[in-house]
Amino acid sequence: MPYRSLEVGDLATNCYLFFAADSRQCLVIDPGAEAERILALIADERLLPQAVVLTHAHPDHMGAAAAVTQRFRVPLWVHEADEKLMRSPAGRGLAAMFGVTPPAAGRLLADGDSIAVGGLELKVVHSPGHSPGSILLHGAGLLFTGDTLFRGDVGRTDLPGGSEDELRRSLERIRELPPATVILPGHGPASVLEQELLDNPYL
Ligand SMILES: [Zn+2]
Ligand SMILES: [Zn+2]
Description:
- By secondary structure, the chain is of the alpha/beta class.
- It is built from seven helices and 14 strands.
- The protein has a single domain, classed as Ribonuclease Z/Hydroxyacylglutathione hydrolase-like (Metallo-beta-lactamase, Chain A, 4-Layer Sandwich), CATH 3.60.15.10.
- The longest helix has 12 residues.
- The protein binds zinc ion (2 copies).
- One zinc ion binds next to loops.
């Protein structure tokens, strides 16, 4: 599988390194905290980060983003709706509770965008509900779901910009993906879509 993961921070956020095995080019997905551990894994795997991508702009997913972008001089990519959220008073307040300063965004992502890294490709699927600019990243048989979908559960919708109706529609889009798709959530263990369709009450 073309990724490595590590759990970081007080909320045990999954940070993923998605990479091409030959070129070692890599995306750093949701560097939530503990920059030193993330940088150490990047070095151990001899990876070459090309960008930091956020599944959404909650502080537990971006606490080490500035450290990674500065270390490798790479941009930060986030959906435009969550970029707006993290600049808003509500977003800044939430970040401050975690001691996180919102990092500067480079490219703003939109539904249907493609992200290429070392010959691999991830498609951006806008999945509002947990936050207005939550995204799924789909490619290479993997689905990075952020806090939209967990094993046996879904993300909360009571934070600023959250919406239960939107989350329901976003889950509908997940249902249509190939059943063998590996689910890589923002917290907790991995799963397979087929299994979630069987026993996740929200799907
Ligand atoms: Zn979240
Ligand atoms: Zn989270």
